[in-house]
Design a protein that fits this description.
globular; alpha/beta; Rossmann fold; 7-stranded mixed sheet; about 250 residues; 2 domains; single chain
C-alpha cells in the first residue's frame, strides 16, 4: 500500500513567496504525501501505531448502539478501520471518515476496499469545519486540530460537543508546544533521535521541520484542556504521550 517516505531526502527549493525559510515548500496532504503517508507517520510520530492499535478496545467500551463514529481528518482511514474491529458486538453503528484531501481519500478507498466488515466506512471529501456532527458516541481527531486555523478550533470543538450523545468520548491527538525552553529543547531532540532511528537523515528532518512551519501550529497541553472545557466537555485526561505527541480523551 505504502511507499517509503523520501519526500525530503533531496534538497528542495521553490519560487513560492510563502515558502518556509530555506525555500522548502509548505507541507500539504497532496498525492506525494498520500503515497507515502503510512510510512511517514509511522516513522515520524512516536506512539501513533499504539494509538491505532488501541482503538478497537476504546470503541468496544465507549461506542453506543445505533450511534455514529466520526473520524475527522481521517487521512487513509487507519483509525476508522481500527475502530470497526471494536464494533462487532455493537448494533446499528455508522462510521463516517472525513478528509478534505481528495488524494488521501482516493488512497483510503483503495486500501479499505481490500477488507470486509459488518460496519462499512463512509468516506466523505469535505472540510471538517463544515461537516454536521450528529448522534455521535465517539469522535476522533487524530493529529487534525493542529492543522486547523487557531481561531476556528474552539468552534469546531463546540460543534462536535453539540452533536455528541451523553457519555460520548472525543479522542484528540496532537503535537503539543512545551513551556520550559530547556526541557522543550531536550524533548525535541529526543523526537529527532526517534526519527534518526527510523532512518531519516539530518536533511530530511530539517526540511520536514521547515515545511511544517506556519502549517502545523502546536499549542500547550494547558491550552487544549481549557479549550475542551470551554467547548462543553465535562472532563479531559491524557491517554497516551510520547515526547511532544499527546492523545487525550474528553468526556461529553
Amino acid at each position: 500500500m505504502s511507499q517509503r517516505d523520501q519526500i525530503y531526502a533531496e534538497p528542495l527549493t521553490t519560487h513560492d513567496p510563502v515558502a518556509a525559510d530555506g525555500g522548502v515548500p509548505p507541507f500539504c496532504f497532496d498525492a506525494r504525501v498520500a503515497a507515502v503517508f503510512p510510512d511517514m507517520i509511522r516513522r515520524s510520530v512516536p506512539g501513533y501505531e499504539l494509538i491505532v492499535q488501541s482503538l478497537p478496545w476504546l470503541a468496544a467500551r465507549v461506542v453506543q448502539p445505533h450511534s455514529r463514529v466520526y473520524d475527522l481528518g481521517c487521512s487513509l482511514g487507519a483509525s476508522a478501520h481500527a475502530v470497526r474491529h471494536g464494533l462487532e458486538a455493537i448494533p446499528g453503528c455508522r462510521i463516517l471518515a472525513v478528509d478534505n484531501s481528495a488524494a488521501m481519500l482516493a488512497r483510503a478507498e483503495e486500501w479499505l476496499s481490500g477488507f470486509r466488515a459488518a460496519t462499512p466506512i463512509e468516506l466523505l471529501c469535505a472540510d471538517v469545519l463544515s461537516v454536521p456532527i450528529e448522534n455521535a458516541s465517539l469522535v476522533i481527531l487524530n493529529f487534525t486540530l493542529q492543522f486547523i486555523p487557531q481561531e476556528q478550533r474552539l468552534e469546531l470543538l463546540q460543534r462536535i460537543r453539540a452533536g455528541m450523545r451523553p457519555g460520548g468520548v472525543l479522542l484528540i491527538s496532537e503535537k503539543i508546544a512545551l513551556q520550559d525552553p530547556v526541557l522543550a529543547g531536550l524533548i525535541t531532540e529526543l523526537h529527532h533521535d526517534f526519527k534518526r532511528a527510523q532512518g531519516y537523515s539530518e536533511l530530511e528532518i530539517a526540511q520536514k521541520r521547515q515545511a511544517l512551519e506556519n502549517v502545523l501550529i502546536a499549542e500547550t497541553l494547558a491550552v487544549h484542556r481549557e479549550r475542551l472545557r470551554a467547548a462543553g466537555f465535562a472532563a479531559t485526561e491524557v491517554w497516551l504521550q510520547h515526547t511532544r505527541f499527546v492523545s487525550l480523551l474528553a468526556r461529553a
